[in-house]
Design goal:
The protein starts with 16 loop residues before the first helix and ends with a helix. The chain has one domain: Ferritin, CATH 1.20.1260. The longest helix has 30 residues, at about 15-45. It has helices at about 15-45, 50-75, 85-100, 105-130, 135-155, 165-185. The chain is mainly α. Helix content is about 75%, strand content about 0%.
């Protein structure tokens, strides 16, 4: 009897565990690329302001995350999402648009995206269990960085953005839809 990786919550009809891991790598690669592009859009508008240094720090971490997932795509022979060009434009546009609304709105965008990513990474950590310790360690490290970004956004007044609840809800909805699509396409 062959040993099956112990990804939790596997049900008949679900992708086999190896395919679930490939989906995780694919969607995380896409998400980190999108996050890096959001920060690039924000920097295009806010890069010369004092908050620019904070955004540059978060952008550098996102580029590090994307580089790690670039490597994992190759090592694990995972096809990247076909939506990459769309995420490239959409991420930049979201970052620039919220930055044009002001520093607090840019930080509100950061908080909304990072809250969804934190939740997403937590689901992955739980699903992996003990089956993929190296991948799990990468995800947990990046999850800590994303939480730091969320906390940075909150410290910079994200919640004081006019229309914060509506803006946050819209960005979270878009982020969840992006995750769902990148996992599959």
């Amino acid at each position: 009897m062959s040993a099956r990786p112990s990804i939790k919550r596997w049900l008949p009809g679900d992708p086999v565990p190896a395919d679930q891991v490939k989906r995780m790598v694919r969607v995380d690669h896409a998400g980190e690329h999108g996050a890096a592009r959001i920060y690039e859009g924000q920097l295009a508008i806010l890069g010369k302001r004092p908050v620019g240094e904070t955004i540059r720090h978060m952008a550098a971490q996102e580029r590090e995350h994307r580089a790690q997932f670039d490597k994992l795509l190759v090592e694990r022979r995972v096809r990247p999402t076909l939506l990459g060009p769309f995420w490239d434009l959409a991420g930049y546009a979201l970052g620039a648009a919220t930055a044009l609304m002001g520093e607090r709105a840019a930080m509100a965008c950061t908080v909304a995206v990072e809250e969804v990513i934190d939740e997403h990474y937590q689901h992955q950590v739980e699903a992996l269990g003990d089956s993929e310790p190296e991948l799990k360690a990468v995800i947990e490290k990046f999850q800590a960085d994303e939480r730091e970004h969320r906390d940075t956004g909150l410290a910079h007044g994200a919640e004081a953005t006019p229309g914060y609840e509506a803006l946050s809800a819209a960005i979270k909805l878009g982020s969840r839809l992006a995750i769902w699509m990148a996992t599959r396409i």
